[in-house]
UniProtKB/TrEMBL annotation, chains A, B:
GO molecular function annotations of the record: 5-amino-6-(5-phosphoribosylamino)uracil reductase activity
Residue intervals of the Bacterial bifunctional deaminase-reductase C-terminal domain: 4-168
Family matches, as Gene3D superfamilies: Dihydrofolate Reductase, subunit A (3.40.430.10)
GO terms for biological process, alphabetical: riboflavin biosynthetic process
InterPro entries linked to this entry: DHFR-like_dom_sf (IPR024072), RibDG_C (IPR002734), Riboflavin_Biosynth_HTPR (IPR050765)
Native species: bioreactor metagenome
The protein, known as: Bacterial bifunctional deaminase-reductase C-terminal domain-containing protein
């Protein structure tokens, strides 16, 4: 059986923000280039499950029901879970337990779409396997950081690094616990 | 006349810390390799002046007088300036004014050795010209961040990027004001 990996694929400013003030994502436009997805399609092809924070979900799903993740099983981490099932499940239980259950079941890799709280919990639970960061050439100065303060230190192993004509620098790390 | 550039050459963890708790720099050992200085010698050859924060100075200068920067003119930014002159000057005046004066005088580039306060002031004064960040493959979780919160947003232009067998990823940016 394929060992399912829990993978983060995310863009940040050089000062480490995944969004500016008021969840502003317009800085991502700086690196938009025709026909260049910076590896997202390959990443998405290797995952069949998405675990996403409630706030992020509300940003990417305009009506709160239809999924931009196509055929994937989506778990929306939300304090107010509901009994919905199907391709989008609201999940109000323990994140660590959900991820452990997913990893021990069969499937492709697991795509994490979340902010500092979710990433922090996954790192502290030693469940995040891989981090791919695309650094956008800007300092935002304030906003939502990717990593929250107070994490346990953790070593990384560089697996791939490169840059693009837009100025985006991408590096993929395996997390070493 | 050569236009003197104000340049930062610095290493951070992937989560953006230049030092761990208690100014711990031991994470830098992770990428120490025989004969590999990650471009520092070239950088140092292109500068003849160092502007350094008092805390950083006290870390790198064991006796507070002898300079690890060899022949370079050193300005130690310190609230308690003293009338010393020579290769090491304690400077208690306005940092922005000092940098403006240095940039309008002849010389090689200017090397910045400072923390979030100095970097923030130089960015907000539009005086920092170039940022070279070497990212060490580790998440420190807490410590001294390179960039403080609340900076004005500023765009960057990627000038060079690459990675090394140690896992260090280096990117150099021109600051676009």
């Amino acid at each position: 059986m394929h060992t399912r990996k829990v993978r983060l694929f995310v863009a940040t400013s050089l000062d480490g923000y995944i969004a500016g003030p008021d969840h502003d994502l317009s800085f991502l436009h700086l690196v938009e280039r025709e026909g260049e997805d910076y590896g997202y399609t390959v990443y998405a092809d290797e995952t069949d499950t998405v675990v996403i924070g409630r706030n992020t979900w509300e940003k990417v799903s305009s009506d709160g029901a239809s999924s931009p993740f196509k055929e994937k099983q989506v778990y929306v981490i939300s304090s107010s879970g509901n009994p919905e099932s199907g391709p989008v499940v609201y999940y109000s239980g323990n994140l660590t337990q959900l991820i452990r259950a997913l990893k021990s079941s069969a499937g492709k890799d697991i795509q994490i779409e979340g902010g500092p709280q979710m990433i922090g919990e996954l790192l502290n639970s030693r469940l995040l396997d891989s981090i791919c960061i695309s650094t956008i050439p800007i300092l935002l100065g304030s906003g939502i950081p990717l990593f929250r303060e107070g994490l346990h230190p953790v070593k990384l192993e560089l697996q791939q690094a490169g840059s693009f004509p837009s100025g985006l620098v991408q590096a993929t790390y395996k997390v070493i616990y």
